[in-house]
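Quick illustration for those who missed Monday's session on complexes.
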Amino acid sequence: MSIKVLLNGAGRVGKAVLKQLLEHKKFEITIINDINPYIENLVYSINYDSTYGKLADKFKIIENNFIKNSTSKIKITNVDSLNKIDLKDIDIIIDSSGKKEDINLLKQLPVNAVFLTHPNKDADINVILGANEKELNPTSHKIISTSSCNATALLPALKLVDEKREILCGDIVTIHPLLNHQRVLDGSFVGSPTREVDCNFEFGRSSTQNIIPNKTTTITACSYVLEKFNKELISSNSLRVPTDTVGAINVTLFTKQTSTKEEITKLFLDFEKNQKFPIVLNNFEPLVSSDFKKERFTTIIDHRYLEVKNNMIKLLLWYDNEWGYASKVVEILKYYEKIKKGK
Ligand SMILES: NC(=O)c1ccc[n+]([C@@H]2O[C@H](COP(=O)([O-])OP(=O)(O)OC[C@H]3O[C@@H](n4cnc5c(N)ncnc54)[C@H](O)[C@@H]3O)[C@@H](O)[C@H]2O)c1
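Prediction with nicotinamide-adenine-dinucleotide bound:
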């Protein structure tokens, strides 16, 4: 029998999750809830996407707030809180709305698990593949955060280096595409209810005309997964750039033991060879950000920019913050179901 899923919030991440989950017959998205009241607009934005193109098997609206394509029939609801939805046939919720819902409310929902697509310190667990998936326990973890796109890309690399060389301190700069809470042209910034944003004035400026510096919650998100990787150990900031998707992280680490470039190269090559999930991909080609669009691997090491000097390691990582991150949400879901069944 298929696992019935409710998708809450069909924005950038929600739609990437939807499209990837449609490929997995084990999961059936039976409800999509979004505060967008226009079902015509919702179905249009699922069928047509400027970043990832047209959906081959398009949805159309059928009777009573249902949409349908050749394989799936999905009910559309339009409420602002999950406790207003009839959940009697739902096994799992994926909440990609960004709403910071009361955790106690989420815990009381009559479903097996709620997956949050944002870091959340009150969740039962924050999971990043390649970092702490072995701690995931379907019996005791009901509210499961799948962390952030940046932390998903970064933490497997930090863990790997730390296990071999012990990280003493470091710094990261994330270079991140623009997001839906930003402005197209200059305007006053209006606080987003779905995001914690510190740099309000900068986010009121035109996202298409500027590189916007801001703080990032990446390291805090890492610390929810593995406590060691916190803001005391690693400093951070971010540059928001006018591209649609694919981020990069410039990472500088100082380690207890010294390394050579060959040793660090081998570390990532060996990891890629032996990994169970699509995490590390080693790139030696002269590629640019759009070449990583729709890439499932989310810690793509660009070896052209790997630098190792004594106890300093400098890495450049790539990741598709929408599609790649959504693929990890789906992988975590599949892994959760697998260990739940004791396989
Ligand atoms: N975009 C990214 O690169 C990215 C990557 C990883 C994680 N995330 C996280 O995923 C979440 C969504 O981000 P996004 O970029 O997809 O945002 P988005 O603005 O594109 O999409 C959010 C969607 O949720 C809907 N929504 C808002 N409040 C709702 C509510 N109360 N109930 C139901 N639907 C609601 C909106 O109408 C919209 O369709 C955020 O928590 C974000 O931090 C985003």
